[in-house]
Design goal:
The chain folds into two domains: about 90 residues, Roll (Urease, subunit C, domain 1); about 290 residues, TIM Barrel (Alpha-Beta Barrel), CATH 3.20.20. Helix 3 packs across helix 4 and helix 11 runs antiparallel to helix 12. About 30% of the residues lie in helices and about 20% in strands. It is α/β, with parallel strands linked by helices. Strands 1, 2, 3, 4, 5, 14, 15 and 16 form an eight-stranded mixed β-sheet that branches.
Length: about 425
């Protein structure tokens, strides 16, 4: 990756919308000003014009649930393959050796890969560590957010277990973390830890983003979470929610009503949960993805993210919202349009970000992908991409492919041997 200054963009020419229409788009600063049929006059604004013939444009990707402090640690840790418990044990053993600059380097590399794919907003959890310096990861990610200001928006969530003191949460929030997070379903007393985290967020008047019901069976914390935050004025989200994939339809419908009433956004994380869940199943291995289609139909706000990238919780990952969308289609049974919405406008919605996309009045956070259609973009995920954040060109990837030409070779035929009499 090479570094260049962001460039203000006045217009995009010849770009295709997901509807199939080919249009020109005028931008005015960080806002989409006009969308007109290709070749029509556009209002004059300041900036450069990009010819995007052959590209499809959508709202930029948004990553609603990342772990940048853990990302790309797989090679250093060399963890065993396995379930959530093994992943936690592997990470905690490594975390005692964590270095702030090394953490920053891994996190920066992952964030820039996300930016190149078209993700301009990231909400990342950061572990509150055990030991004498619990804020190593917090300091690293605050530095990263400052470094990348103007290129992408980064929001931080303090991720602390039940043994992390309230004072450490307070110190993280004082250091610049934005929201309270945790995984109460993993605590010995899940409801007590849930109540503590909610009380922390209320006392500090910040939002909540909780890992919730991250197992196929076990503690039911999501219903209690919903009842506790109904009517609250701060953003609240629930990540993972894989237990919901195992619920009978009638039970899920009742829970969905409570989630909708509480205005909790549900974030599915297909790649990590496909990896972590189901290791104990000898057959009929469950997919373990929060049932976004049914939740969406019930009026729940939904989104999806990649979660972990090449760390003990997920050994793979491409830092690409189109990878997440593809998994939602093939493993989550969403239509491509719904899958794309979950990783763009839906993700921005649950993150509390302004509406973005190729719509007049929307924030000019856009990604253009070389593709003939939305299905083409999700299926092939071309790396040819142009990324705009607040109306400025912040990343462009151009792929060059050379394929050897077929050479016509002379055909040699064997003539039949003359018949001979014996």
């Amino acid at each position: 990756m090479s570094a260049v200054p962001p460039v203000s963009i006045a217009a995009l020419r010849g770009v295709r919308l997901t509807s199939g229409a080919v249009v020109d788009i005028a931008l005015d600063g960080d806002e989409v000003l006009a969308v007109v049929p290709a070749g029509s006059p556009l209002p004059d604004t300041d900036g450069e014009t990009l010819d995007l013939t052959g590209y499809l444009v959508t709202a930029a990707g948004a990553e609603p649930h990342a772990h940048l402090d853990k990302s790309q640690s797989w090679d250093a840790i060399q963890p065993p393959f396995g379930d959530l418990v093994r992943a936690i044990e592997s990470w905690q053993a490594f975390a005692v050796t964590l270095d702030e600059d090394e953490t920053l380097g891994r996190a920066r590399s992952t964030a820039l890969r996300m930016l190149a794919s078209g993700i301009t907003s990231i909400r990342t959890h950061v572990d509150l560590l055990h030991g004498s310096d619990p804020l190593i990861g917090v300091r690293a990610l605050v530095r990263l957010r400052d470094e990348l200001e103007g290129l992408m928006d980064i929001e931080l969530v303090a991720l602390g277990g039940p043994t992390v003191p309230n004072a450490v949460f307070d110190a993280a929030l004082d250091a610049g973390v934005d929201l309270v997070g945790g995984a109460p379903h993993l605590a010995d007393d899940p409801l007590a830890d849930l109540e503590r985290l909610i009380a922390l967020a209320r006392r500090r008047d910040v939002g909540l983003d909780l890992h919730t019901d991250e197992s196929l069976a076990g503690a039911d914390t999501l219903a209690a979470y919903a009842r506790a935050v109904t009517g609250w004025h701060r953003p609240r989200t629930a990540g993972h929610c894989v237990r919901l994939s195992m619920m009978p339809a009638a039970d899920l419908a009742l829970l969905a009503d409570e989630i909708r009433a509480a205005d909790i956004g549900v974030i599915a994380l297909p790649i990590t949960n496909l990896y972590l869940q189901g290791w104990d199943a000898a057959h009929a291995v469950p997919r373990a993805i929060a049932p976004l289609g049914r939740l969406r139909a019930a009026g729940v706000r939904v989104a999806a993210g990649a979660d972990n990238v090449r760390d003990p919780f997920n050994p793979v990952g491409r830092c690409d919202h189109l990878e997440t969308a593809s998994l939602l289609v093939s493993a989550g049974h969403l239509a491509p349009e719904a899958a794309m919405d979950a990783v763009t406008t839906g993700a921005r919605d649950v993150m509390g970000l302004p509406v973005a996309g190729p719509v007049p009045g929307a924030r000019a956070d856009l990604v253009a992908v070389r593709a003939d259609s939305l299905g083409d973009a999700v299926a092939f995920a071309s790396a040819d991409r142009v990324v705009l954040h607040r109306g400025r060109l912040v990343s462009r990837t151009t792929v060059s492919t050379e394929t050897a030409a077929s050479v016509a070779l002379p055909v040699r035929t064997r003539s039949a041997a003359p018949a001979t009499a014996s």
